């Protein structure tokens, strides 16, 4: 391994500009003549709009325009779409209510977009918005999804009179019911997977611009997938054909899924730029982010596990209600279905699985993918079930897991997925050792001496990443293929530009992708630059989410590099006057087999461009290749996390005493960046378990609309993690990598809750397990044991 | 933030005159007022910045009294060796307000005048039996804090200093709101010449209050054990998504015990 090659913990190239304030985020972009947009948002969870009177606002200083849903309709601007079709059990398509970028006749959640005020300054736009008079006819809110489907509940969308988007299922119901009928033991659990706000450090922002001379639009936007944004804005919303719409996602400060989607605000900014003849800029404030960024999770689940007399799992049966909010966001329908139920086998050999999912409309913000997207929800169900089953069977939870692990690969689960590689017992053994589980009893006794409670919780998670084989997801309802593209441009002096359809918003692609190219071509890391996030530079791409940039994005680069090497060998053959088949390439040098004749990569690049040494009709000059990589399978990162907590029963405060993570991500490109991803993921998972929860009151008002009430995990809430890896190579991509971006957020919540319930001696404690919640659980247990 | 006039007078008299103007507000450290204005929840016509008033600055410790100028920042109180020696609980309380940025801008006068039900200083004032000194008069803490964000201050009245009698022992224990880190329950316990005094912030629906049962127990026996079995009533306590009244009542007991344990 070289100092900068695959497997080296190279410092991130992009960090210099980030930490010296030289990053270029959307809010840093200011266009000549730019005006500012302020969105007037609904103060009601559910209301008809009887009328909007903008006359007073239009007379305010600096106000250029007040645009409403009527203007959207008049200009025939299309609605926002959900790009994944789910069919109900009865074969009917999901019931997608219209989602206009500005409300037409009705608002459906607090924060819904009623109008946009465009003015010379942001303050003037805000002042103008206060003078827009909207006459609302307030309707009952629909907040609790269990009540949403009851007769008499207010209807969010007329297309779904029972507020149900779909009733979907997966698996063999008959076989699963039979497994339960024959079971020796059945565990039953009711679980809530709490609703989360994504909270990227950089709030969403957009600058829309229209060039009248060219008849072309440019949109700068905080996107994880600018090409998908362009596709949707062109083909569905109808802003402009693709060749007349450039979408640029420059430096983006975190996404966690929330910036995958195509939202109302950027749509309105780019449309309004032509309407007012000025570039239009909008940057969300934090409250707007809480109100209108797509939220994550929000499941209510009843789950059951069947076990035979030998302690082997024979079946899992799950019913989930998934809150999708007021409108179907871009990929909302896929999250509680194909990103969820296919993971219900966990790391375990489970012969029969059946899952039913009811997706529900409520008058709350839309819910879509958030770090892990469906897989944290599945892991929470499986790992809570496993833990409680082990306790009920009085088996050691690690042993119960080990007994049921899948040990032979490939392994076809009963729920679509075919796991290709893994060594689950090795990860468990490594984690048990690193966490010093053997010393836990002594540590617990010590805690008890100090009046504290101590608990230990496992989470053996699996995820499906490297999303995803296009034909496979197409057969499951996806509206797009999930390949990735790459173009390798070798310049005449041998420096290289990589154009990728992946998008980096914190992942460090400018470093890891360069490590791949540097080691493959034998050129210095600084001779490689990574170009991404601009539809005028990169022709097409599918973006970054689902831990796909390594497994899919880098595989596309490998494929393009294969073509570069093949072409360069032809050029080298001409220059070295040898047969192409005799040319070898290693460490940046082309050599003629069995001779000392050699030429370096940069010289070959120059020869390719000056084209003196070969016939330009037989071999094209230049050195530039592109490739599309369509994966053959998902990848299956997996691992074991062990959380040890100490609880103060007097206050209910939970302290994470120790965290051990042992993950199998396949081959690591940059272990330091991988560890960073694990750290961040665990922090977000602990956030879900201990801190974070979106709260709407019964009227649909967002109570947790600021950091005064929405608790993010802080550095002081987290311990120093023990992070180790084990490695089984992923067989379905050339680099053997599996992806690591979501693992921590997937693994952590059940590890924490298993640890807390172990400490308290209870079966469940709801998330977020805040001090109030834990104190109440501890007090209830004390009362029970006293009685 | 809406437009407003900004004044920075250099005399108390000038400040008082400006504050008599229509819809004028005093600006001390601005740690509550400015965020509220940024959110467009407050829109004073004028701000009267008190930072240049010399009479509002400085810490003075005599044998039996600690006098703190109203414009003194939390960081200055926390960092004062003299305060730490005279009233250790007060210095500890100041050092635990907000975060370093808040402590270097926020002032004791601003905190006391605002009487946020989750602010820390009102607990110290009440438990120590402080006197709030204004440009017009002196007000005993027991008469000063009159309700949620309500005080005995008249329109245009400016706090100039807060005078604390030195206690024999004092301690503060706070249970922070996990999101905002304001006090869900903060208890200041003081052993004073006049007996034990216990003041509770964060919990009461009407703001800071004294917990008389604990005072009686501690008067007889100043020790953790004296309050260990004591239960506060949940009546009249706040409920929100972080803590309901019952949990707050429980925490009052726990924090009182810890305040006594921390008292020096």
Structure commentary:
In chain A, 29% of the residues lie in helices and 24% in strands. Chain A is α+β, with helices and mostly antiparallel strands and 787 residues long. Chain A has three domains: 17-139 and 201-254 and 259-292, Alpha-Beta Complex (Aldehyde Oxidoreductase, domain 3); 296-467 and 633-786, Aldehyde Oxidoreductase, domain 4; 483-629, 2-Layer Sandwich (Aldehyde Oxidoreductase, domain 4). A seven-stranded mixed sheet of chain A has the order 3-5-1-12-9-10-11, with helices on both faces. In chain A, strand 10, helix 7 (226-236) and strand 11 form a beta-alpha-beta unit. Chain A is globular. Chain B is α+β, with helices and mostly antiparallel strands. Chain B has two domains: 5-165, 2-Layer Sandwich (Uridine Diphospho-n-acetylenolpyruvylglucosamine Reductase, domain 3); 169-262, CO dehydrogenase flavoprotein, C-terminal domain (Enolase-like, domain 1, 2-Layer Sandwich). Chain B has helices spanning 12-19, 33-38, 74-79, 81-86, 88-95, 100-105, 108-114, 121-128, 141-144, 212-220, 224-228, 245-262; strands spanning 5-7, 24-27, 46-49, 59-61, 65-69, 131-134, 138-140, 145-147, 150-151, 159-165, 169-176, 183-192, 195-201, 209-210. Chain B is globular, with a radius of gyration of 18 Å. The interface between A and B is medium-sized, with 21 and 15 residues.
CATH class of the largest domain in chain A: Alpha Beta
Strand order of the largest sheet of chain B: 4-5-10-6-7
CATH class of the largest domain in chain B: Alpha Beta
Total DSSP helices of chain B: 12
* Alpha carbon gyration radius of chain A: 27 Å
Number of folding domains of chain A?
Answer: 3
Give the helix level of chain A as a range of percent. 25-40%
Strand-residue proportion of chain B: 15-25%
What general outline of chain A do the C-alpha atoms trace?
globular
Based on DSSP secondary structure assignment, what is the total number of beta strands of chain B?
Answer: 14
Strand content of chain A: 15-25%
Summed over residues and divided by their number, the pLDDT of chain B gives a mean of 97
Distance between the termini of chain A: 64 Å
Shape of chain B: globular
The secondary structure category of chain B is alpha+beta
Number of strands of chain A: 28
Which residue ranges of chain B are poorly predicted, with pLDDT under 50 across at least 5 consecutive positions? none
């Amino acid at each position: 391994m070289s100092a900068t090659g695959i497997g080296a913990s190279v410092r991130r190239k992009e960090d210099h500009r980030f930490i010296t304030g030289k990053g270029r985020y959307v809010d840093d972009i200011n266009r000549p003549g730019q005006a500012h947009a302020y969105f007037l948002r609904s103060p009601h969870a559910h209301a008809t709009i009887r009328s909007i009177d903008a006359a007073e606002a239009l007379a305010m200083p600096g106000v250029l325009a007040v645009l409403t849903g009527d203007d959207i309709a008049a200009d025939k601007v299309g609605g926002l779409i959900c790009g994944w079709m789910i069919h109900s059990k009865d074969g009917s398509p999901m019931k997608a209510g219209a989602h206009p970028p500005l409300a037409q006749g009705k608002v459906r959640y607090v924060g819904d977009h009623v109008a946009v005020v465009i003015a010379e300054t942001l303050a003037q736009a805000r002042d103008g918005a206060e003078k827009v008079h909207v006459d609302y006819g307030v309707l009952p809110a629909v907040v609790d999804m269990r009540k949403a489907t009851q007769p008499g509940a207010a209807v969010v969308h007329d297309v779904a009179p029972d507020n149900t988007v779909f009733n979907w299922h997966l698996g063999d119901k008959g076989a699963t019911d039979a497994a339960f009928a024959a079971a020796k033991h059945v565990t039953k659990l009711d679980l809530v997977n709490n609703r989360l706000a994504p909270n990227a450090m950089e709030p969403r922002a957009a600058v829309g611009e229209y060039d009248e001379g060219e008849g072309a639009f440019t949109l700068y936007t905080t996107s994880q997938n600018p090409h998908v944004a362009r596709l949707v804005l062109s083909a569905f919303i109808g802003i402009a054909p693709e060749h007349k719409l450039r979408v640029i996602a420059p430096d983006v400060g975190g996404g966690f899924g929330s910036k995958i989607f195509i939202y109302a605000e950027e749509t309105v900014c780019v449309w309004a730029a032509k309407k007012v003849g000025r570039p239009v800029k909008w940057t969300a404030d934090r409250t707007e982010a809480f109100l209108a960024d797509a939220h994550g999770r929000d499941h209510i689940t009843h789950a059951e596990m069947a076990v035979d007399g030998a302690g082997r799992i024979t079946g899992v049966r799950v019913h989930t209600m998934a809150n999708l909010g007021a409108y179907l966001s871009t990929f909302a329908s896929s999250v509680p279905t194909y990103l969820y139920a296919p993971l219900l086998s966990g790391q375990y050999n489970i012969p029969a699985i059946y899952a039913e999912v009811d997706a529900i409309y409520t008058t709350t913000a839309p819910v879509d993918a958030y770090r892990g997207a469906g897989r944290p929800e599945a892991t929470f169900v499986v790992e809570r079930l496993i833990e409680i089953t082990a306790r009920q069977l009085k088996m050691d939870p690690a042993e119960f897991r080990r007994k049921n692990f899948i040990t032979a690969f490939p392994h076809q689960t009963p729920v679509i997925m075919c796991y290709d590689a893994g060594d689950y017992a090795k990860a468990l053994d490594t984690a048990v050792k690193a966490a010093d589980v053997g010393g836990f009893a002594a540590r617990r006794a010590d805690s008890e001496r100090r009046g504290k409670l101590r608990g230990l919780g496992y989470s053996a998670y699996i995820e499906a990443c490297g999303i995803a084989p296009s034909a496979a997801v197409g057969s499951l309802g996806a509206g797009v293929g999930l390949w990735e593209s790459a173009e390798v441009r070798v310049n005449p002096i041998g420096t290289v530009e990589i154009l990728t359809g992946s998008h980096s918003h914190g992942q460090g692609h400018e470093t890891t992708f360069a490590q791949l190219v540097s080691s493959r071509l034998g050129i210095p890391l600084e001779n490689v630059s990574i170009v991404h996030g601009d539809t005028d530079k990169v022709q097409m791409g599918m973006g970054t989410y689902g831990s796909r940039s390594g497994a899919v994005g880098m595989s596309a680069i490998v494929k393009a590099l294969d073509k570069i090497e093949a072409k360069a060998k032809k050029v080298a053959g001409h220059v070295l006057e040898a047969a192409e088949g005799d040319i070898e390439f290693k460490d940046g040098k082309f050599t003629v087999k069995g001779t000392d004749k050699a030429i370096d990569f940069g010289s070959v690049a120059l020869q390719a461009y000056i084209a003196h040494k070969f016939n330009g009709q037989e071999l094209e000059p230049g050195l530039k290749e592109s490739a599309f990589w369509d994966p053959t399978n998902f990848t299956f990162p997996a691992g074991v996390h062990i959380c040890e907590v100490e609880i103060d029963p007097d206050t209910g405060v939970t302290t994470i005493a120790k965290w051990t993570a042992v993950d199998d991500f396949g081959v690591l490109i940059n272990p330091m960046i991988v560890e960073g991803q694990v750290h961040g993921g665990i922090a977000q998972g602990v956030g879900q378990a201990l801190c974070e929860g979106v709260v709407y009151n019964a009227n649909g008002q967002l109570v947790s609309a600021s950091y005064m009430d929405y608790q993010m995990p802080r550095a002081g809430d987290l311990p120093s993690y023990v992070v180790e890896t084990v490695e089984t190579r992923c067989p379905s991509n050339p680099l053997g990598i599996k992806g690591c971006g979501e693992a921590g957020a997937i693994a952590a919540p059940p590890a924490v809750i298993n640890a807390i319930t172990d400490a308290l001696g209870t079966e469940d404690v709801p998330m977020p397990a805040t001090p109030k919640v834990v104190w109440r659980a501890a007090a209830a247990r004390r009362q029970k044991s006293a009685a | 933030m809406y437009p407003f006039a900004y004044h920075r007078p250099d005399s108390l008299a000038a400040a008082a005159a400006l504050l008599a103007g229509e819809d004028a507000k005093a600006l001390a450290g601005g740690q509550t007022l400015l965020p509220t204005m940024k959110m467009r929840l407050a829109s004073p016509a004028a701000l009267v910045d008190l930072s240049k008033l010399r009479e509002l600055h400085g810490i003075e410790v005599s044998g039996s009294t600690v006098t703190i100028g109203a414009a003194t920042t939390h960081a200055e109180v926390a960092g004062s060796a003299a305060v730490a020696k005279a009233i250790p609980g007060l210095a500890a309380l100041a050092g635990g307000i907000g975060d370093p940025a808040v402590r270097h801008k926020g002032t004791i006068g601003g905190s006391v005048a605002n009487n946020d039900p989750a602010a820390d200083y009102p607990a110290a004032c009440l438990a120590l039996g402080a006197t709030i000194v204004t440009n017009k008069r002196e007000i005993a803490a027991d008469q000063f804090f009159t309700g949620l964000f309500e005080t005995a201050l008249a329109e245009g009245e400016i706090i100039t200093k807060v005078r604390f009698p030195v206690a024999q022992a004092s301690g503060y224990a706070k249970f922070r709101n996990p999101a905002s880190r304001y006090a869900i329950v903060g208890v200041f316990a003081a052993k004073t010449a006049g007996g034990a005094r216990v003041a509770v912030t964060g919990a009461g629906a009407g703001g800071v209050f004294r917990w008389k049962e604990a005072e009686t127990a501690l008067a007889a026996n100043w020790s953790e054990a004296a309050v260990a079995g004591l239960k506060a009533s949940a009546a009249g306590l706040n409920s929100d998504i972080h803590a309901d009244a019952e949990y707050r009542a429980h925490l009052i007991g726990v924090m009182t015990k810890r305040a006594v344990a921390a008292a020096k």
